[in-house]
Amino acid sequence: MALYAVGDLQGCLDPLDRLLEQVHFDPANDHLWLVGDLVNRGPDSLGCLRRVRALGADATSVLGNHDLHLLATAAGVREPGGKDTLRPVLDAPDAGDLLDWLAQRPLLHSDPATGWTMVHAGIPPAWDLEAAQAEARQVETELSEPKRRHAFLEVMFGNEPAQWHPDLAGYDRLRYTVNALTRMRYLTANGALEFAGNGPPEEASPDLTPWFRMPDRAAAGQAIVFGHWAALGHRVGPDWLALDSGCVWGNCMTLARLDEAEGDPARVTTWQAPCPR
Questions:
Q1: Which pLDDT value is given to residue 263?
Q2: For residues 210 and 226, what is the distance between their CA atoms, to the nearest angstrom?
Q3: How far apart are CA 244 and CA 185, in angstroms?
Q4: Model pTM score
Q5: Record: fold of 3-274
Q6: What gap in Å lies between CA 213 and CA 161, rounded to an integer?
Q7: Which of 276, 100, 106 is nearest to 181 (CA)?
Q8: Regions of the chain where pLDDT drops below 70
C-alpha cells in the first residue's frame, strides 16, 4: 500500500485529480493524507469536500484554519471574508452532512507504522508527540459534538493566549491548541506564537524563528508533514516536510509519497501539478 500526502487544496480540485491520476492512485490499495485547508479561496471548495469525503477510510484529512473558518461561518458565529469562496458549500443540499463530516476530522494524525505525523501548521516546541495528541483530542471532542461545537466556535478565534503553560485551562487552553496546530508559523525567542509574520524565513524579522527551527523542540526527531505556509513552499527539513506550495495563488500543488521514506523527509518522492489562477 502506498501512502501519499498532499498540500493544501483550498478549493482547487482539478490539480488534485491530476496528481492522483499521475501516480495511479488506487483507493483499494493506497491511502491519501491531506494536510488541511480543503476549502476556501479556490474555485471548487464544494467539490473538494465531496471528493475527499467520498474516499471514506481511504483518506485522512486534518483540520486547517480555513476549514475551521467554514465551520464557524456555517454556525453563524463568524462573518464571511471578502475573499471567501464558501457560498456554494453553505448553499449545497448536502451542506449539513459535509459540515458534520468536516467537524469530525482530527487536528493531528500520527502513524507509528510509517513514522510520520500530520498536522496543518506544526507542533509547538514545548510539546512532544504524546502531549500534542492529548491536546488535539480535547479540541476534537469539542468539535465532534454539535452543541459543544457551537459554544466552542463562538470563543475559538483570537490570538491569546500566545504562550503555552501547563496551567492553561478551559477555552484558553483549547484556543492555544487550535492556534498552535492550525495557524502557527513563527515564534518569539520565549516560544510565544507570533502571527504578524507569514513570509518566508529568509525575510523574517531576526527576533522571529520558524517553529521547526526552535531549539530544544520536544518533538524533534518525529517526522512531521504539514501545510499552511504558502510562502515557505515545498521544503524538506531534517524531520519535517512542508507541502503547501501555494496552489491557490497560481503556483502548484505538491503530492509526496511517505511510506517508502521510513520517516526520512530527504527520501520522499514528490510530484507537482501547476495551478492556473
A1: 92
A2: 13
A3: 12
A4: 0.97
A5: Purple Acid Phosphatase; chain A, domain 2 (3.60.21)
A6: 22
A7: 106
A8: 277
